Amino acid sequence: MASRVVLLGPLLALLFIVSTCALEASSSSQSVFSLDRYGARGDGKHDDTPALVKAWKAACSSSSPAVVLVPKGKRYLLKLVTLAGPCKSSSVQVAVQGTLVASPNRADWSDNNRRHWIVFRGVNKLTVNGGGTVDGSGETWWKNSCKINKALPCKEAPTALSFHYCTNLRVQGLKIVNSQQIHMSVEDCTNVQLAGLSITASGTSPNTDGVHITRSRDVQVTNCKIKTGDDCISIENGTHNLHVSKVVCGPGHGISIGSLGDDNSRAEVSGITIDSVQLYGTTNGARIKTYQGGTGYARDITFQNMVMDNVQNPIIIDQNYCDKATPCQASGSAVEVSNVVFKNIRGTTSSEDAIKLDCSQSVPCHGITLQNIDLRMVAGSSGGATTQSTCQNAGWTKFGTVLPQPCSAKN
Fold first, then answer.
1. Which of 93, 212, 380, 391 could form a disulfide with 357 if both were Cys (CB 3.0 to 4.6 A apart)?
2. Domain map of the chain by residue range?
3. What is its main location (predicted)?
4. Does 1.10.10.60 match the CATH number of domain 30-212?
5. Which residues participate in catalysis according to the annotation?
6. Handedness of CA 105, 110, 116, 118 (dihedral sign)
7. Given its phi and psi angles, is residue 7 left (phi above 0), alpha (psi -120 to 50 degrees) or beta?
């Protein structure tokens, strides 16, 4: 036994030396810039925006890969802030281990800057992760929304996290809660991975989309849970090569491509795959919506392997969409919708119109595929109602079993 102890002593010493060297090597490969080092209080009461700005500037100008650290167990109060590149550092990681909380005072935003809260702009190789929370303090904004109080004028509210003109972007393992309006917006970005996100707000919160994507390409969204008062994922103009998989959604308005062509604008969307998604109690399931009067296209789109539970409109293409205070005018132009596949979709609906293809008379939908679909009325529906489908100006093809029978009600 004594000889074993004697031998164990040098061995432990050697292991300690090796582990210490490894730790020092790891620390030397990255420079860490903690908010606390730059004067942050982390008490959720004092404004820590200046500390975050200083930590970001130091990290962005670092000669080595840099980490901006939001320490665990604290709440850092932030007002409107923009963290911009390009950065000297070859990569920047923002490790949110604690909580970033928005100022609850709406007066901290003027009418000129109401659309944003935390903005990352023009950064290459940015990673935002850490397992912490981004809290938008949205309740005070929601009750002052015109959608909640009809007597109030309609005004925009901030998006919690905005990414503009970023390349090689990774956002992983965050909790984003109670955003003032949209929870996360990806705009004009390339090569984006969003993974392991939990996005939560009240089902009655207005305009609180989970993830909003526009003018971006090569985007992946995987393993996310989204419960909000609006679209779980909204996909708008300029989105190309987007792959969404393993997302759980509800409550909310489902997954929407659009709205496209608003105010006679041109829209281009292509290469969209929505795969292995579960929707619970949402207003819509797989949805494409366009305004009359627009131009452009929405094409090469696949919704597949989807499970729906009590979804009001499981499958819907609406080229006559209108979300205006006054009725939209009929028009001879429209965003062309083509090459759309709805495949392996099953579950329950609270609406008799489980499949609704309401397309433009002037620019009909074409190349619509319905394959292996089984959508039934939710249990307990009154009158023994069964599901049906409706089509207007839609060219479709059926493969396999499709329930309800496509477009049997009217054409």
1. 391
2. 30-212, 231-411
3. secreted
4. no
5. 253
6. negative
7. alpha
What is the DSSP secondary structure assignment for residue 107, as one 8-state letter?
G
- Phi, psi angle pair for 334, to nearest 5°: -165, 160
Chain position carrying tokens 């935002």: 128
Secondary structure percentages of the chain, helix, strand, coil, to 5: 15, 50, 35
How many other β-carbons are positioned within 10 Å of the β-carbon of residue 116? 23
Say yes or no: do domains 30-212 and 231-411 share a fold: yes
| pTM, 2 dp | 0.91
